[in-house]
Design goal:
81 residues; mainly alpha
Length: 81
């Protein structure tokens, strides 16, 4: 049962990420977590599962680069990093 629940959540996360990228556009998205929050049920895998959802969405590598890195650099004025 636990595996089904994990798979359901992963699919929901994937669908949510895909819908957000279509609706808002990658230029308006940033990757974030509430780390170092620790979930005893999924341990350190929670962040990886969230990153995997973004990586599995059918968007360009350039869009993924914006979501994971470029947009937050722009927001925080870290253009030199």
């Amino acid at each position: 049962m636990r595996r089904c629940e994990d798979e359901r959540r992963a699919l929901e996360s994937l669908a949510d990420t895909a819908a957000a990228s279509v609706f808002f556009g990658a230029e308006h998205m940033v990757f974030g977590t509430d780390y170092p929050y620790y979930d005893p049920e999924c341990g350190n895998q929670c962040v990886g599962k969230t990153m995997d959802a973004v990586n599995r969405v059918n968007i360009s590598d350039a869009d993924k680069q914006e979501i994971f890195e470029d947009n937050v650099k722009w927001i925080l004025h870290l253009d030199n990093f």
